Amino acid sequence: MDNGSQTGEKISGVISNGYDVVAGVKVNDSSFASTASLLSSRPSFLTKGLDLLMKQLISLIAIPFLCYISITKFNILKDIFDKATSELPIQNSTEYKDSGLIKRLQQTLSGKVFENAVEHQIKEGYCCHATQRCLLKSIPKFDSTNLAEQTRGPATIEQFAETLDKMSGGVTKSKVIWGCDGFDAFLSALKRVNDPNVRVALNFLRSPLFGVKKPLFLPFHWFLCFFGGHFSPVIGFFEDLNLVAVFDVNSNYGLFFVSPQRLYQAVNTHDVTSGKNRGIVVVEVLE
Length: 287
Prior knowledge:
The longest helix is centred in the first third of the chain and has 28 residues, at 45-72. A hairpin with a 2-residue loop joins strand 2 (21-22) and strand 3 (25-26). Helices cover 37% and strands 20% of the residues. The protein is globular and about 50 Å long. The two termini are 21 Å apart. The strands form four sheets. Strands 5-12-6-7-8-9 form a six-stranded antiparallel β-sheet, with helices on both faces. Helix 1 (45-72) crosses helix 2 (74-85) and helix 1 crosses helix 9 (219-227). The protein has a single domain (9-285), classed as Cathepsin B, Chain A (Alpha-Beta Complex), CATH 3.90.70. By secondary structure, it is α+β, with helices and mostly antiparallel strands.
Protein backbone atom coordinates (compact mmCIF):
# COMPACT_ATOMS: atom_id res chain seq x y z
CA MET A 1 0.00 0.00 0.00
CA ASP A 2 1.29 3.49 -0.76
CA ASN A 3 2.36 5.92 1.94
CA GLY A 4 -0.32 8.48 1.05
CA SER A 5 0.24 12.21 1.20
CA GLN A 6 3.38 13.45 2.91
CA THR A 7 1.27 16.12 4.60
CA GLY A 8 -1.07 13.53 6.03
CA GLU A 9 -0.52 11.41 9.12
CA LYS A 10 -0.79 7.65 8.87
CA ILE A 11 -2.92 6.19 11.65
CA SER A 12 -3.78 2.55 12.27
CA GLY A 13 -6.93 0.99 13.58
CA VAL A 14 -9.23 3.98 13.36
CA ILE A 15 -12.51 3.59 11.57
CA SER A 16 -13.58 3.82 15.21
CA ASN A 17 -17.31 3.35 15.11
CA GLY A 18 -17.56 5.88 12.32
CA TYR A 19 -16.01 8.73 14.28
CA ASP A 20 -12.63 8.04 12.77
CA VAL A 21 -9.84 10.51 13.33
CA VAL A 22 -9.99 14.24 13.88
CA ALA A 23 -6.67 16.09 13.65
CA GLY A 24 -4.75 12.87 14.21
CA VAL A 25 -6.46 12.01 17.50
CA LYS A 26 -8.16 8.67 17.87
CA VAL A 27 -11.48 9.34 19.59
CA ASN A 28 -13.00 5.87 19.85
CA ASP A 29 -11.43 2.47 20.43
CA SER A 30 -13.98 0.43 18.51
CA SER A 31 -12.37 -0.02 15.10
CA PHE A 32 -13.60 -1.30 11.77
CA ALA A 33 -10.29 -3.07 11.22
CA SER A 34 -7.13 -2.94 13.25
CA THR A 35 -5.03 -2.70 10.10
CA ALA A 36 -7.03 0.07 8.42
CA SER A 37 -5.02 3.18 7.58
CA LEU A 38 -6.48 6.65 7.23
CA LEU A 39 -4.95 10.01 6.45
CA SER A 40 -5.64 13.09 8.52
CA SER A 41 -3.96 16.48 8.57
CA ARG A 42 -3.21 18.40 11.73
CA PRO A 43 -4.26 21.95 10.86
CA SER A 44 -1.99 24.77 12.00
CA PHE A 45 -3.19 28.07 13.43
CA LEU A 46 -2.40 29.64 10.06
CA THR A 47 -4.48 27.01 8.25
CA LYS A 48 -7.38 27.56 10.64
CA GLY A 49 -7.12 31.32 10.19
CA LEU A 50 -7.07 31.05 6.41
CA ASP A 51 -10.02 28.66 6.53
CA LEU A 52 -12.02 31.12 8.65
CA LEU A 53 -11.11 33.97 6.32
CA MET A 54 -12.14 31.93 3.29
CA LYS A 55 -15.51 31.14 4.86
CA GLN A 56 -16.08 34.83 5.55
CA LEU A 57 -15.24 35.69 1.94
CA ILE A 58 -17.56 32.97 0.67
CA SER A 59 -20.28 34.31 2.95
CA LEU A 60 -19.93 37.77 1.40
CA ILE A 61 -20.20 36.28 -2.06
CA ALA A 62 -22.95 33.89 -1.03
CA ILE A 63 -25.48 36.56 -0.05
CA PRO A 64 -25.94 38.13 -3.52
CA PHE A 65 -25.45 34.75 -5.20
CA LEU A 66 -28.17 33.11 -3.09
CA CYS A 67 -30.49 36.04 -3.83
CA TYR A 68 -29.85 35.67 -7.56
CA ILE A 69 -30.30 31.89 -7.57
CA SER A 70 -33.45 32.11 -5.45
CA ILE A 71 -34.98 34.25 -8.20
CA THR A 72 -33.66 32.44 -11.28
CA LYS A 73 -33.71 28.86 -9.98
CA PHE A 74 -36.28 28.95 -7.20
CA ASN A 75 -37.62 25.43 -7.85
CA ILE A 76 -34.12 23.93 -7.57
CA LEU A 77 -33.47 25.59 -4.22
CA LYS A 78 -36.95 24.69 -2.96
CA ASP A 79 -36.38 21.02 -3.83
CA ILE A 80 -33.10 20.95 -1.89
CA PHE A 81 -34.57 22.90 1.03
CA ASP A 82 -37.51 20.50 1.29
CA LYS A 83 -35.16 17.49 1.30
CA ALA A 84 -32.91 19.08 3.91
CA THR A 85 -35.74 19.94 6.31
CA SER A 86 -38.50 17.36 5.76
CA GLU A 87 -36.91 14.56 7.80
CA LEU A 88 -34.75 14.26 10.89
CA PRO A 89 -30.97 14.22 10.27
CA ILE A 90 -29.64 10.69 9.83
CA GLN A 91 -27.29 11.08 12.79
CA ASN A 92 -30.41 10.75 14.96
CA SER A 93 -31.05 7.22 13.70
CA THR A 94 -29.98 4.17 15.70
CA GLU A 95 -28.16 2.57 12.76
CA TYR A 96 -26.12 5.67 11.81
CA LYS A 97 -22.88 4.45 13.44
CA ASP A 98 -23.98 1.15 14.92
CA SER A 99 -21.01 -0.88 16.18
CA GLY A 100 -22.70 -4.19 15.35
CA LEU A 101 -23.14 -3.12 11.74
CA ILE A 102 -19.49 -2.11 11.55
CA LYS A 103 -18.40 -5.56 12.78
CA ARG A 104 -20.67 -7.20 10.25
CA LEU A 105 -19.31 -4.97 7.48
CA GLN A 106 -15.79 -6.11 8.35
CA GLN A 107 -16.76 -9.68 7.44
CA THR A 108 -18.22 -8.87 4.04
CA LEU A 109 -16.34 -9.06 0.75
CA SER A 110 -16.81 -5.36 0.10
CA GLY A 111 -15.63 -4.51 3.62
CA LYS A 112 -12.52 -6.61 3.24
CA VAL A 113 -11.43 -5.06 -0.08
CA PHE A 114 -11.56 -1.60 1.50
CA GLU A 115 -9.93 -2.61 4.78
CA ASN A 116 -6.54 -1.13 3.93
CA ALA A 117 -7.71 1.29 1.26
CA VAL A 118 -9.77 3.99 2.94
CA GLU A 119 -8.34 7.40 3.76
CA HIS A 120 -9.61 10.86 4.63
CA GLN A 121 -9.30 13.95 2.53
CA ILE A 122 -6.45 16.08 3.87
CA LYS A 123 -8.09 19.38 2.94
CA GLU A 124 -11.51 20.75 2.06
CA GLY A 125 -12.06 20.35 -1.67
CA TYR A 126 -9.93 17.19 -1.90
CA CYS A 127 -12.87 14.77 -1.59
CA CYS A 128 -12.86 13.77 -5.26
CA HIS A 129 -9.22 12.72 -5.38
CA ALA A 130 -9.40 11.11 -1.92
CA THR A 131 -12.35 9.00 -3.12
CA GLN A 132 -10.52 8.02 -6.30
CA ARG A 133 -7.53 6.93 -4.23
CA CYS A 134 -9.77 4.82 -1.97
CA LEU A 135 -11.28 3.06 -4.98
CA LEU A 136 -7.98 2.39 -6.72
CA LYS A 137 -6.19 1.22 -3.55
CA SER A 138 -8.99 -1.31 -3.00
CA ILE A 139 -8.21 -3.03 -6.32
CA PRO A 140 -5.60 -5.80 -5.78
CA LYS A 141 -4.29 -5.72 -9.35
CA PHE A 142 -3.72 -1.95 -9.26
CA ASP A 143 -0.19 -0.89 -8.29
CA SER A 144 -0.69 2.01 -5.89
CA THR A 145 3.03 2.53 -5.30
CA ASN A 146 3.20 5.58 -7.53
CA LEU A 147 -0.33 6.85 -6.89
CA ALA A 148 -0.30 10.63 -6.84
CA GLU A 149 -0.75 12.43 -3.54
CA GLN A 150 -4.10 13.98 -2.77
CA THR A 151 -4.95 17.20 -4.55
CA ARG A 152 -8.02 18.98 -5.83
CA GLY A 153 -9.89 16.73 -8.20
CA PRO A 154 -12.58 17.16 -10.85
CA ALA A 155 -15.74 18.96 -9.83
CA THR A 156 -18.30 16.96 -11.81
CA ILE A 157 -19.21 13.31 -11.72
CA GLU A 158 -18.47 12.83 -15.43
CA GLN A 159 -14.96 14.19 -14.94
CA PHE A 160 -14.58 11.94 -11.89
CA ALA A 161 -15.34 8.83 -13.93
CA GLU A 162 -13.12 9.86 -16.83
CA THR A 163 -10.08 10.73 -14.74
CA LEU A 164 -10.47 7.63 -12.56
CA ASP A 165 -10.21 5.36 -15.60
CA LYS A 166 -7.13 7.26 -16.77
CA MET A 167 -5.54 6.98 -13.32
CA SER A 168 -6.20 3.22 -13.27
CA GLY A 169 -4.15 2.67 -16.44
CA GLY A 170 -6.86 0.56 -18.07
CA VAL A 171 -7.76 -1.45 -14.98
CA THR A 172 -11.23 0.09 -14.62
CA LYS A 173 -14.22 1.04 -16.73
CA SER A 174 -16.61 3.51 -15.14
CA LYS A 175 -20.23 4.39 -15.83
CA VAL A 176 -22.31 7.24 -14.41
CA ILE A 177 -25.83 6.58 -13.14
CA TRP A 178 -27.63 9.91 -12.80
CA GLY A 179 -30.05 10.68 -10.01
CA CYS A 180 -32.62 11.60 -12.63
CA ASP A 181 -32.40 8.04 -14.00
CA GLY A 182 -34.72 7.09 -11.13
CA PHE A 183 -34.54 5.22 -7.85
CA ASP A 184 -34.67 1.73 -9.41
CA ALA A 185 -31.55 2.41 -11.50
CA PHE A 186 -29.86 3.92 -8.44
CA LEU A 187 -30.70 0.91 -6.27
CA SER A 188 -29.53 -1.60 -8.89
CA ALA A 189 -26.21 0.24 -9.13
CA LEU A 190 -25.79 0.34 -5.36
CA LYS A 191 -26.30 -3.40 -5.04
CA ARG A 192 -23.31 -4.01 -7.30
CA VAL A 193 -20.93 -2.88 -4.54
CA ASN A 194 -21.23 -6.41 -3.12
CA ASP A 195 -19.54 -7.75 -6.27
CA PRO A 196 -15.77 -7.95 -5.56
CA ASN A 197 -15.11 -6.78 -9.14
CA VAL A 198 -17.17 -3.59 -8.78
CA ARG A 199 -16.64 -0.36 -6.85
CA VAL A 200 -19.20 2.40 -6.34
CA ALA A 201 -18.69 6.10 -5.61
CA LEU A 202 -21.24 8.78 -4.74
CA ASN A 203 -21.57 12.41 -5.72
CA PHE A 204 -24.11 13.78 -3.26
CA LEU A 205 -25.30 16.83 -1.38
CA ARG A 206 -24.90 16.42 2.36
CA SER A 207 -27.82 18.60 3.53
CA PRO A 208 -30.61 16.11 2.59
CA LEU A 209 -28.89 13.66 4.96
CA PHE A 210 -27.62 15.85 7.77
CA GLY A 211 -29.84 18.92 7.51
CA VAL A 212 -28.73 22.55 7.39
CA LYS A 213 -25.65 23.26 9.47
CA LYS A 214 -26.16 25.62 12.40
CA PRO A 215 -26.21 28.48 13.19
CA LEU A 216 -28.76 29.13 10.47
CA PHE A 217 -28.03 32.86 10.23
CA LEU A 218 -24.63 32.26 8.60
CA PRO A 219 -24.84 32.60 4.77
CA PHE A 220 -21.94 30.14 4.44
CA HIS A 221 -24.08 27.35 5.91
CA TRP A 222 -26.88 28.00 3.43
CA PHE A 223 -24.32 28.07 0.63
CA LEU A 224 -23.17 24.60 1.68
CA CYS A 225 -26.77 23.44 2.01
CA PHE A 226 -27.54 24.21 -1.62
CA PHE A 227 -24.17 23.87 -3.37
CA GLY A 228 -21.80 21.83 -1.16
CA GLY A 229 -21.44 18.75 -3.36
CA HIS A 230 -19.26 15.91 -2.09
CA PHE A 231 -17.65 12.64 -3.25
CA SER A 232 -17.23 9.47 -1.16
CA PRO A 233 -17.04 5.70 -1.74
CA VAL A 234 -19.76 3.18 -0.92
CA ILE A 235 -18.15 0.25 0.88
CA GLY A 236 -21.10 -2.05 1.52
CA PHE A 237 -24.81 -2.71 1.18
CA PHE A 238 -26.91 -4.87 3.51
CA GLU A 239 -29.90 -5.79 1.38
CA ASP A 240 -31.66 -7.63 4.22
CA LEU A 241 -31.49 -4.52 6.41
CA ASN A 242 -31.94 -2.03 3.56
CA LEU A 243 -28.80 -0.13 4.65
CA VAL A 244 -25.88 1.32 2.70
CA ALA A 245 -22.40 1.74 4.21
CA VAL A 246 -20.81 5.01 3.13
CA PHE A 247 -17.25 5.96 3.99
CA ASP A 248 -17.36 9.75 4.01
CA VAL A 249 -13.82 10.94 3.28
CA ASN A 250 -14.49 13.99 5.46
CA SER A 251 -13.22 12.87 8.88
CA ASN A 252 -15.97 14.83 10.64
CA TYR A 253 -18.48 12.28 9.30
CA GLY A 254 -16.59 9.08 8.48
CA LEU A 255 -18.26 5.71 8.14
CA PHE A 256 -22.05 5.76 8.45
CA PHE A 257 -25.10 3.71 7.50
CA VAL A 258 -28.18 5.05 5.75
CA SER A 259 -31.14 3.68 3.82
CA PRO A 260 -30.87 3.76 0.01
CA GLN A 261 -34.10 5.77 -0.13
CA ARG A 262 -32.63 8.53 2.01
CA LEU A 263 -29.29 8.39 0.19
CA TYR A 264 -31.09 8.77 -3.12
CA GLN A 265 -32.55 12.07 -1.90
CA ALA A 266 -28.99 13.37 -1.48
CA VAL A 267 -27.86 12.10 -4.88
CA ASN A 268 -30.91 13.22 -6.84
CA THR A 269 -30.07 16.91 -6.41
CA HIS A 270 -29.07 19.58 -8.91
CA ASP A 271 -25.39 20.33 -9.42
CA VAL A 272 -24.92 23.97 -10.42
CA THR A 273 -21.40 23.23 -11.74
CA SER A 274 -22.52 20.71 -14.36
CA GLY A 275 -26.10 21.91 -14.79
CA LYS A 276 -27.20 18.30 -14.24
CA ASN A 277 -28.30 16.15 -11.33
CA ARG A 278 -25.72 14.39 -9.21
CA GLY A 279 -25.32 10.63 -9.36
CA ILE A 280 -23.15 7.61 -8.65
CA VAL A 281 -20.26 6.01 -10.49
CA VAL A 282 -20.19 2.26 -11.01
CA VAL A 283 -16.57 1.14 -11.52
CA GLU A 284 -15.95 -2.26 -13.08
CA VAL A 285 -12.57 -3.89 -12.49
CA LEU A 286 -11.50 -5.31 -15.85
CA GLU A 287 -10.07 -8.77 -16.21
